[in-house]
Amino acid sequence: MATWLSPCALSLLLLQLSLQLSPLHATDSLTANQQLSGDQKLISQNGNFALGFFQPAAETSSGKWYIAIWYNKIPEQTIVWVANREKPVFDTLLSRLTVSDDGNLVLLLNHSKSPLWSTNIKNNTAASSTVVVLLGNGNLVVRHEANTSAVLWQSFDDFTDTWLPGNKLSRNKKTGIIKRMISWKDRGDPAQGMFSIQLDPNGSPQHILQWNRSVVYWTTGNWTDNGFSGVPEMSPLNPYPSSRFMFQFVDNDEEAYFTYNIKDDALIFTRTIIDVSGLFQTLSTCSENDASPCSCLKGFSENHPNNWKLDDRTAGCRRNIPLQCGNNGSVKVKQDRFYAINSVKLPDDAHNIDATSVQDCELMCLKNCSCTAYSHSGTCLVWYNHLMNLQDNIDGSSDSIFIRVAASELPNSGNNKLLFIGIIIGGIFAVSSGLAILYFLHRRTTTIDGLNHGDESLIRFKYSDLQRLTRSFSEQLGAGSFGSVFKGAESDGTTVAVKKLEGFQQGDKQFRAEVSTIGNIHHMNLIRLLGFCSEGVKRLLVYEYMPNGSLDKHLFGSSCTTLSWKIRYQIAVGIAKGLAYLHEECRDCIIHCDIKPQNILLDASFVPKLADFGLAKLFGRDFSRVLTSMRGTVGYLAPEWISGEAITTKADVFSYGMMLFEIISGRRNLEHKDTSMATFFPVLVARKLHEGEVQSLLSKELVNGVNERELERACKVACWCVHGNESSRPTMGEVVKILEGVIDVEMPPVPRYLEVLSEGSENVKFFS
Length: 768
Prior knowledge:
Its EC number is 2.7.11.1. This protein has about 775 residues and is of the alpha+beta class. The chain folds into five domains: about 20-160, Agglutinin, subunit A (Orthogonal Prism); about 160-295, Agglutinin, subunit A, CATH 2.90.10; about 295-425, no CATH class; about 455-545, 2-Layer Sandwich (Phosphorylase Kinase, domain 1), CATH 3.30.200; about 550-765, Transferase(Phosphotransferase) domain 1 (Transferase(Phosphotransferase), domain 1), CATH 1.10.510. It has a six-stranded antiparallel beta sheet, covered by helices on one side. The protein has a six-stranded mixed beta sheet with strand order 31-35-36-34-33-32, with helices on both faces. A four-stranded antiparallel beta sheet has the order 1-10-11-12, with no helix packed on it. Helix 9 (about 565-585) packs antiparallel against helix 13, helix 9 (about 565-585) packs antiparallel against helix 17 (about 730-740) and helix 13 (about 650-665) runs antiparallel to helix 16. The model is unreliable at about 1-25, about 285-290, about 415-455, about 620-630, about 670-680 and about 760-768 (pLDDT under 50).
């Protein structure tokens, strides 16, 4: 029997169907027949977290999209969880997140019924009543709509690289399942990276950090009731964590886990991450409204500025000038002063003292060497030692605080008469000394064309100055990438090395910008750039002079000095530190692109310094073009470089490994003993490692003085560095830790890539 509907009833039915099948609107939950796609998102009820499609900032041109959870109230999108981290989608409008018929949360492409990603819940007996909810703590849960406690799946059990307060990093003693955090592959790819943290699978009450899921490079130490023995920052004596975090370690018959929560509402946007470089850290965002939420007060500077650039502000700030405490009444030392900050929320941990006026309150603070600030609004409040959680204009606050600093930090508002006398005396001095100053400046500019203030301490030389310094480039020290190097000497005896760049086509403005970047990089294992010349097509760089020349002369040349094992190991560690600085600590990651013994210079104490660093970046960042113009470095090039793939810092790691083999042996990696036979040293090292005979690799001059542990470490590091798969190579920061004995490394495989090459080594020239 057919059923007929009136137009009104039909309209209501269509409306009902359209509501049931419509995409998601602003809500914290997702039910059956609802979907999320495009720019739609879930928002937790407290508004702190959002879930939707996101694209890593470093990969906006790749078209890759992921389902993720992020902080909803922070201007810079900060990701705390990623669903399909290994399987991105490329069209968010044709992709949808929805609840499937079996009660799973799934990510589908187009009209496919096979999910790209799924929560993989088994035997959901009430699939039709499944609801997905984004909670206010950042946890995404799948549960039954009628029973909120029946959690079928939660993102807190599916760690990525972030650990939010309230979550548990655990080991299930019944099932053996261990929850671990795994870093991103790189800053533009949330796929699983090389670093992870988990509870010790051997049962010790500690967490271990691993590289490649196998090599332990750091441990927290065992839990000792109130903290981990290897993490002194967690001590109850440390005021910051003890007052702001609650730590708990539970170890029972069912499971062992560690969790933390926050006491301070101001730290609601707190997370713990394992970074792509293996750094494990807890970060707190100070404000939900400001893209640059934290800053140091006047008179203070950042502790560890490089960490601040990475949004790690946990080290806080330090005073620029120490307080002049203890000099009460001294006429020789100016008394500390205060400056006011108005309309603030006062810091925590204030102490109430007996002072009836603002003046008395200030005096009481000055008398106490530990007092750092005071406030008075009917009551005198003072703060000792650290100031924590000082916030601007919270909820229209009208409180003021007075910050204590050394007198020299504030402008002198003293006697105008004294100021006038000072001006008169200064004027007389200026007139009497003016001619001498002008004469000095005139003499100075005849040799050096003034300081380029935009490049900080870099000196801008005239070409004629460098001609004079080098005696018309008469004494050549060597030939490096893109030019020759000449010795120069000032009249005061200062010696420099002047490099003439050849075939260099960059414009003056770009050249100076690149030079400024390199000139601001300072490290004891990087050659110091002192100045430059840019006149027409003439481009020259002026470096500090290294009296012991380049490493290759001591390893392969006619130098009468045989480097001891101690010096060789010192050189290996120093080079690794220099590269780690370029890769991991500079504002911009710099890939050296030409690591070889010729580019390692040695000072009077045989401390190594990388030369020619950054020249690939300086030459326009076109790595394929740089490759074709490099000479004599084929034996150090990574396989991905030769095949034309994109280059990362791991290309430098490969080159370092090839060079480390040569530092160990004192010979080139490939030495022809006769016309029919060649020995490829890297493959020989790997084989001898597995045979336990690494000492046989050394020359007679080194055997007696070698440290066997250092030799084994160096051989292992070299083999890992030249691994054919770049993701299996360590970072240079890890290399430093291994060589210094901070972390251990497992036995490396024999590098198959190099074995294949060595089989035809008579046709491949590995020497430079």
